[in-house]
Design a protein that fits this description.
By secondary structure, this protein is α/β, with parallel strands linked by helices. Helix content is 29%, strand content 20%. The protein has three domains: 207 residues, P-loop containing nucleotide triphosphate hydrolases (Rossmann fold), CATH 3.40.50.300; 99 residues, no CATH class; 83 residues, Nucleotidyltransferase, domain 5 (2-Layer Sandwich).
Length: 448
C-alpha cells in the first residue's frame, strides 16, 4: 500500500527536470541539450524551493548570465507536468511578454513530450498570450497594459524582470500589488519574483530586503573557510600592468584576473570555481525575515558562462566609458546584482596634487574630447570653471573665475553673457552646466 502511495508522490524539481527535459537552442542559447544543474549547482535549492509548502514569496535577485531565465522556464515546466494550477507570467511590457513566449517558452513546451502531451488539439488554445493546456492555463502579460492585470484568477505568478515594472498610474496600486491581489484568492498561492535590481529605493529591492536574503557560500580551496563571492577591489584582483591602457589593458585584465580569499588572502583561480560551487550552500543573512518570504541573491561571479576575467573586463571598460556613471550603474545592477547608489570616494589632497599636469591657464591640452563650463551660483557670487575632458574621463582645468550675479542686465554680465564671451584661441566651449540649486527660476530665465 505504501509503495502505491509513493507512485503519486511528486518528484523533486531538479530530479524531474534533469530526467525529462531537453532544452532547445531557442530556450537556452548558453547550454542547449539535456537540462543539467552540473555547471550551476547553486540553482538546485532555489528550484526546489518552488515546491515548499507555505512559501508565498520567492525572490531570485540574480546577475546577468546566471541562468535565471532558464530556471524560471524549468519552474513553469515542472508545474505543467506535476502540479498544475492557473499561472501568470508577467514581463514589463506586452511586446516583451509575447516575444518571450514565442521565442523561449513555447519551443520548450512543444519540443518536450512530457509538456507537449498537455497541449490541446485546438490551435487557438496555444497562442503567445494564452496557453490553455489540458490541466492548467498559462497567461503571458505585460504590466504596462493595465487591463491585463485584473481579470482571471491565478494561483502562481512569475514576475520576471520585476525591477523594470513601471508604476505609471499613481492612483492605482503598484502593478506588483495588483497581480498579488489576484493570487491571494488561493490559500496556497505563490509568487516568484525574479530580476536584476535597479535602484536602492525600487519596489523590487525594498521587498527583497525583507526576505531572508540567502547568499551562496563556497569553500576557499586554500584554507577551506566558507565565503560568498563578492565583487570588490579586495577580492577581484588582476596582475598589475601600469604600461597598458584602453583595449590592451582590458585584454590583459581578462586573462590575468583571480579571486582573493578574505580569510587567508590566498589566490583562487577561475578554473577552481566549479569545484567550489559543487560544495557550496545557501545561507540566510537576514534572521528577521518571515518564513513565507525567501530570497536568493547571486551575482555574475558565480556564472559558469563568464569567467572572473570577463567580469573584471566589464568593470574596467565601464570605468573608462565616456558615460561612466551609466556604465557603472549597469555593471552594478547587471553583474553585481546590487542596486545602484552613488559611490562616495574619499581621495586625499596629496593624491589629487600628484595627478597635476603641466597645462597653463588658458591653454588647451593637445587631445581632448569636449570642453565644458560649469557654473555654481550662490547668494553673492557665481564661481565658474572651464574644463577639457578626455575620452577616458581625464580632466584639464583650462580656466576659472567668479561672476557677481546670475542674471545678465544692461549694467552687469550674468552667466549667459559670460558664457557667450568665452573662448581660448578661437575654441568655444561645447556646452555649459549650471547647478541651479536654490536659484532654479532665475537660472531658467537666464538660460532662456
Ligand atoms: Zn582562504
Amino acid at each position: 500500500m505504501f509503495s502505491k502511495l509513493k507512485i503519486h508522490e511528486k518528484p523533486g524539481v531538479v530530479e524531474w527536470a534533469e530526467r525529462c527535459l531537453v532544452l532547445p537552442r531557442e530556450t537556452s542559447p548558453n547550454a542547449p541539450g539535456r537540462f543539467s544543474t552540473a555547471r550551476m549547482p547553486y540553482m538546485r535549492e532555489p528550484l526546489e524551493s518552488i515546491r515548499e509548502e507555505g512559501l508565498q514569496h520567492i525572490y531570485w535577485c540574480f546577475g546577468t548570465q546566471s541562468g535565471k531565465t532558464v530556471s524560471l522556464l524549468i519552474a513553469a515546466a515542472y508545474f505543467i507536468d506535476n502540479d498544475p494550477a492557473p499561472m501568470l507570467w508577467a514581463l514589463p511590457t506586452e511586446i516583451l511578454a509575447r516575444s518571450f513566449s514565442r521565442a523561449r517558452l513555447q519551443p520548450l513546451i512543444s519540443k518536450n513530450d512530457v509538456l507537449a502531451r498537455h497541449k490541446r488539439r485546438d490551435p487557438d488554445a496555444f497562442t503567445a498570450a494564452e496557453m490553455r493546456l489540458d490541466s492548467m492555463e498559462l497567461y503571458m502579460v505585460g504590466v504596462s497594459e493595465p487591463g491585463n492585470l485584473s481579470s482571471r484568477p491565478i494561483m502562481r505568478c512569475v514576475m520576471d524582470e520585476e525591477a523594470k515594472y513601471k508604476h505609471e498610474n499613481k492612483e492605482e496600486a503598484h502593478p506588483v500589488d495588483l497581480i498579488e491581489e489576484r493570487a491571494k484568492g488561493f490559500h496556497r498561492y505563490q509568487i516568484l519574483h525574479a530580476s536584476t535590481p535597479s535602484s536602492e529605493d525600487s519596489y523590487f529591492w525594498q521587498n527583497f530586503i525583507t526576505t531572508d536574503m540567502r547568499k551562496f557560500y563556497v569553500p576557499c580551496p586554500r584554507c577551506g573557510e566558507m565565503m560568498p563571492l563578492e565583487f570588490s577591489r579586495n577580492t577581484v584582483q588582476w596582475e598589475r600592468r601600469e604600461d597598458l591602457e584602453g583595449d590592451a589593458l582590458a585584454d590583459w585584465v581578462q586573462d590575468h584576473t583571480f579571486y582573493v580569499c578574505p580569510h587567508c588572502e590566498g589566490r583562487v583561480e577561475d578554473w577552481e570555481k566549479i569545484g567550489m560551487m559543487e560544495k557550496g550552500e545557501w545561507r540566510p543573512t537576514n534572521p528577521n525575515a518571515s518564513r513565507a518570504r525567501r530570497g536568493y541573491h547571486l551575482n555574475s561571479l558565480y556564472s559558469p558562462f563568464v569567467t572572473w576575467g570577463q567580469t573584471a573586463r566589464k568593470f574596467i571598460v565601464a570605468q573608462n566609458d565616456l558615460f561612466r556613471q551609466v556604465a557603472l550603474h549597469n555593471f552594478r545592477n547587471g553583474w553585481e546584482a546590487l542596486p545602484f547608489t552613488q559611490y562616495e570616494i574619499k581621495v586625499g589632497d596629496d593624491s589629487v596634487r600628484g595627478l597635476r599636469g603641466v597645462c597653463r591657464r588658458g591653454e588647451l591640452p593637445r587631445h581632448y574630447y569636449y570642453m565644458v563650463v560649469a557654473y555654481d551660483p550662490g547668494q553673492n557670487q557665481t564661481h565658474w570653471v572651464a574644463q577639457a575632458i578626455g575620452r577616458g574621463g581625464e580632466t584639464w582645468v583650462v580656466d576659472w573665475g567668479t561672476l557677481l550675479g546670475i542674471s545678465t542686465t544692461d549694467a552687469t554680465p550674468g552667466i549667459g553673457a559670460h558664457f557667450e564671451s568665452l573662448e581660448w584661441g578661437g575654441v568655444r566651449p561645447d556646452f555649459g552646466l549650471i547647478d541651479s540649486g536654490d536659484w532654479a527660476q532665475k537660472v531658467y530665465d537666464e538660460c532662456y
